From TrEMBL:
PANTHER family: ALPHA_BETA-HYDROLASES SUPERFAMILY PROTEIN (PTHR43689:SF8), HYDROLASE (PTHR43689). It is an enzyme of class 3 (hydrolase). Pathway: Aromatic compound metabolism; 3-phenylpropanoate degradation. InterPro entries: AB_hydrolase_1, AB_hydrolase_fold, Epox_hydrolase-like, MhpC_alpha/beta_hydrolase. This is 2-hydroxy-6-oxononadienedioate/2-hydroxy-6-oxononatrienedioate hydrolase. The active site is at H267. It catalyses: (2Z,4E,7E)-2-hydroxy-6-oxonona-2,4,7-trienedioate + H2O = (2Z)-2-hydroxypenta-2,4-dienoate + fumarate + H(+); (2Z,4E)-2-hydroxy-6-oxonona-2,4-dienedioate + H2O = (2Z)-2-hydroxypenta-2,4-dienoate + succinate + H(+). Its EC number is 3.7.1.14. GO terms for molecular function: hydrolase activity. Belongs to the AB hydrolase superfamily. MhpC family.
Amino acid sequence: MTATAFTEASTSRFARIKEGDLDLQLHYNDVGQGKETVIMLHGSGPGASGWANFNRNIEPLVNAGYRVILLDCPGWSKSDPVVSQGSRSNLNATALKGLLDVLDLDRVHIIGNSMGAHSTVAFALENPERIGKLILMGGGTGGPSAFVPQPTEGIKLIGALYRDPTIDNLKKMMSVFVFDASSLTEELFQTRLDNILSRRDHLENFVKSSTLNPKQFPDFSHRLHEISAETLLVWGREDRFVPMDTGLRLLAGLPKARLHVFNRCGHWAQWEHADAFNRMVLDFLTH
Ligand SMILES: O=C(O)/C=C/C(=O)/C=C/C=C(\O)C(=O)O
């Protein structure tokens, strides 16, 4: 399958899952065919989706012979709404388990971005037998930063955008999201704003969830040693959302982790440094 052969619409799928406390419809994109499957889990920004977060990363994996599945987490994009009162990392992990069972997938590699990385670690702790290799960008655990006051400026701007979804607030958030804001086009802003405004229920539920439990992403530091999977950590040196020392904490705790830090990179390494990121991921998965 080549780049022009697939689109968001042509790969769009829905699945009903009943798993733990969850009984809902999930949306996902299913691209390519292959013996090995790579799951991609997006971050928690308003209007995020698997496709929005990873559209620069699908094709190289598909061309290398992987099946790629992009899950829209509960409460995002075309998946059903949800209010999260406990750990959203674990809620997403439960949803992923439900989807893997529906799709009859025993074991998968997972690429998680920010919240998606927190959820990947939650999934790995709950389902160690279901994981191959892990790639975590800009996340993997909640918890404190030794250097940066929290909530960070980026997370505060995400909150402002959820409460007041205007183009100005979107641009404010995105301007600290990536290192080089001049790489963001008006088309990207508009697409993202359309995604945001098309699901006001998701926005309201996110605000409600954060009020019910401000700590949606628990600190897994004390359990990281339980994860035996090979793990590639990828961070932006200038990440203003989830500071780089979170990556050092993961590196110290995960027994089989290595860390790559991109210079001139914010919170969106897989998009800001897509070519280098894609090469690194393929190398990591194949060797
Ligand atoms: O609060 C956290 O630890 C996690 C924050 C995020 O997951 C933010 C992610 C933002 C995106 O990936 C996005 O596309 O908006």
